[in-house]
Amino acid sequence: MIVQQPSLSNSVRWLQIQTSSDLDLHSQLKELIPEQQERLKKIKSEYGKVQLGNITVDMVLGGMRGMTGLLWETSLLDPDEGIRFRGLSIPECQKVLPAAKPGGEPLPEGLLWLLLTGKVPNKEQVDALSKELRSRATIPDHVYKAIDALPVTAHPMTQFTTGVMALQVQSEFSKAYEKGIHKSKYWEPTYEDSLSLIAQVPAVAAYVYRRMYKNGERIPMDDSLDYGGNFAHMLGFDGPEMQELMRLYVTIHSDHEGGNVSAHTGHLVASALSDPYLSFAAALNGLAGPLHGLANQEVLLWIKSVVDECGENITKDQLKDYVWKTLNSGKVVPGFGHGVLRKTDPRYMCQREFALKHLPNDPLFQLVSKLYDVVPPILTELGKVKNPWPNVDAHSGVLLNYYGLTEARYYTVLFGVSRAIGICSQLIWDRALGLPLERPKSVTMEWLENHCKKSA
Ligand code: NMX
Ligand code: MLT
């Protein structure tokens, strides 16, 4: 059945609800790749010289905001509407992607299938992919040893990235390249590495958590569980609501088009034909920055500092004073603002809906709700903030904290596990489409001055 949804973009012209019993993701991709290669060839030959906008000095000096410069097939971000995964919004994904139980949160494996193929999988296809991911999830012993070589106090992101780097020794892409693989076949070992990496990151991440906070006792994978459920289980959380939260969490953090720091870094590094492990480890180092993924840690620590100073039943006036105190000390209010979004992040909204359903009386959720009222007018009053609204990180911590995952320093690792799905999906397409080495032009201040004087 073809889904007819006028609001969907052209990138999902081939979106289908599958009725096919083809359970093999690899062979589906193999079928799709030649069609998409032709499509790209046609775009290049027919539209290669079409302009996409003018580059201004402000853009060059302003972190390339608004400069279109990347091809990213798996998702597209609208400043007002938020993210669409292959054309589907988060509420649409919640409706159409298979769930562990009727009406439940989407299974991240389903999203992986969607990102890779542009098609909504059926439950059998998702179950087959869950099984395949479980079969690839064994972690070689040297990975644990590499992590163990770090002090247990090292930041969880440092430990996690070290684990990902240690996984790199198994890269099929690197081995194939060394043997002289033909460029038309690059996508195949990239696919192998990507699926293995996606399969293995939850166990590596769970080990970091157990090592740091639970005396190093590892919990083996449960073969009856799906990807998100298993991740919660290996962390030590077996409650059904926490498993549902993890499915939602991993789904919504996976991809946010290509220009964000982690996705762009992964794509840039992979453009040198660095394998998916090297590329994803680089991406994680970007995610570990406080203006990007580390903001989820910063939000919960900041909320806890509010509670320490003013108590849980803080009034809105007290909260306003606290926000101003943060701003006046030269810090950002974590969890608010965005490089592209200009409205409330739909990833924030779906977490808010989850909280309203499962933990409406939680004091920290109520504090987050008060912040939603208090912070945007203050950021607007500052006069320079382009988006005063909350982003994904403003909400995730209080949900995790409610279910007992209270260690805020760990939160960015969860984001990292999820982001493997988006970054690796696009890396497979990067190689399938033969995308080139990324190498933009840079200039000096002297060059800018001379150029601008000449064109004045
Ligand atoms: N609190 C205080 N100041 C802010 C905030 C905020 N939440 N957001 C933006 N500003 C400031 C920003 O620092 C800049 O100041 P200055 O000119 O003095 O350098 C000014 O407003 C203009 O910034 P924008 O153009 O609005 O934002 P930009 O695109 O540069 O940065 C963020 C986007 C996300 C880095 C920024 O909004 C921010 O620092 N937010 C808080 C950290 C955060 O929540 N990051 C997570 C983003 C989502 N993610 O997961 O990656
Ligand atoms: C992300 O999910 O990557 C963040 O919202 C940051 C971004 O999109 O720039």
TrEMBL record:
Gene Ontology MF, one: acyltransferase activity, acyl groups converted into alkyl on transfer
Active-site residue list: 292, 338, 393
Any Pfam family: Citrate_synt
Any GO BP annotation: citrate metabolic process
Keyword Transferase part of the UniProt annotation: yes
InterPro entries in UniProt: Citrate_synth-like_lrg_a-sub, Citrate_synth-like_sm_a-sub, Citrate_synthase, Citrate_synthase_AS, Citrate_synthase_euk, Citrate_synthase_sf
GO cellular component: mitochondrial matrix
Domain of life of the organism encoding this protein: Eukaryota
Key words of the record: Transferase
Family per record: Belongs to the citrate synthase family.
PANTHER family for the chain: CITRATE SYNTHASE (PTHR11739), CITRATE SYNTHASE, MITOCHONDRIAL (PTHR11739:SF8)
Protein name: Citrate synthase
Organism expressing this protein natively: Helianthus annuus (Common sunflower)
